[in-house]
Amino acid sequence: MNLFHFTTRRLVSQVYCGLKPASSKKQRTCFEMARPSSSMADFREVFAKAKHIAIITGAGVSAESGVPTFRGAGGYWRKWQAQELATPEAFARNPSRVWEFYHYRRELMMSKHPNPAHTAIAECEARLSKQGRSVVVITQNIDELHRKAGTKHLLEIHGSLFKTRCTSCGTVTANHKSPICPALDGKGAPDPDAEDSQIPVENLPRCEECNGLLRPHVVWFGETLDSDILTEVEKELEICDLCLVVGTSSIVYPAAMFAPQVSARGVAVAEFNMQSTPATDRFRFHFSGPCGTTLPPALARHETEIIS
């Protein structure tokens, strides 16, 4: 078993059991390196030679599209933070309230559009694929804006707002209905004074296969990542020869360890973010500023590219 596979699997079991990732002197040593460069010219040289590019994205890439993060001081829906609603326990206690929260988020996302960062990534993937090169997007976001922008090779490690999973038979289905069920029509107002609708469970979204109660197909707090998707992520990060980290805080595990482990095997990692993160010093490049401003020139066609 290789180092990446072992470390990631161990992190998954630790993090979602409420443990912090173990620290080791050996890991700290292999991550020590010079301060990252902000030279776009140097990055572009590396980009021009890369054959397998992995792009890891977080909430920051969608912030410029007006997508709320529900984190921090202002991250409330009504009087609850996401951490209080996005759990299996919250859904078991009050599925109506949790579905109102996700209905609100779904309806909000239907009005949002990809920004220049999403577009730059999708256009880069399409262009490089014609040159026999690959781009994979590994996203922590559940908003599907990458998909809207045209990204094809997409790994959504935390699931999607627009997929449901049956709590009875386990069927996962894409669902872009608005509203997702009649009982949620007009519900989900985020106002702190809004009352719970207390929708009867039989009127909440139901499975078309077995009529079981549906839940959002997202990874909630306390749940593990999908092992099949995690395996795909591992494979992509093992073969990539350039890695970009875009709009992520690098504090949510296990995703926070993906790029540092790529860097540890000598592969160039470039961070695009509004500010430095706990992982910044482990990377070769860091570009500060809005992703929609910094990413398009970084991923634009290089003069050495041959387009047939």
Automatic annotation (TrEMBL):
Keywords annotated in UniProt: Cytoplasm, Metal-binding, Mitochondrion, NAD, Nucleus, Transferase, Transit peptide, Zinc
Predominant subcellular localization, coarse grouping: cytoplasm
Record domain Deacetylase sirtuin-type: where: 33-305
Name this protein carries in UniProt: NAD-dependent protein deacylase sirtuin-5, mitochondrial
Gene3D superfamilies the record matches: SIR2/SIRT2 'Small Domain (3.30.1600.10), TPP-binding domain (3.40.50.1220)
Class of the enzyme per the UniProt entry, highest EC level: transferase
Residue stretches in coiled coil: none
UniProt domain comment: In contrast to class I sirtuins, class III sirtuins have only weak deacetylase activity. Difference in substrate specificity is probably due to a larger hydrophobic pocket with 2 residues (Tyr-102 and Arg-105) that bind to malonylated and succinylated substrates and define the specificity.
Pfam families xref list: SIR2
CDD domains: SIRT5_Af1_CobB
Organism annotation: Podarcis lilfordi (Lilford's wall lizard)
InterPro entries (UniProt xref): DHS-like_NAD/FAD-binding_dom (IPR029035), NAD-dep_sirtuin_deacylases (IPR050134), Sirtuin (IPR003000), Sirtuin_cat_small_dom_sf (IPR026591), Sirtuin_class_III (IPR027546), Ssirtuin_cat_dom (IPR026590)
UniProt: NAD(+) binding residues: 58-77, 140-143, 247-249, 273-275, 291
Binding site for substrate: 102, 105
GO cellular component: cytosol; mitochondrion; nucleus
EC identifiers of the protein: 2.3.1.-
Localization per record: Cytoplasm, Cytosol; Mitochondrion; Nucleus
Location of the active site: 158 (proton acceptor)
Family: Belongs to the sirtuin family. Class III subfamily.
Biological role: NAD-dependent lysine demalonylase, desuccinylase and deglutarylase that specifically removes malonyl, succinyl and glutaryl groups on target proteins. Has weak NAD-dependent protein deacetylase activity; however this activity may not be physiologically relevant in vivo.
Domain of life: Eukaryota
Organismal lineage: Eukaryota, Metazoa, Chordata, Craniata, Vertebrata
Cofactor-binding details, from the entry: Binds 1 zinc ion per subunit.
Residues reported in the UniProt entry to bind Zn(2+): 166, 169, 207, 210
Keyword Phosphoprotein in annotation: no
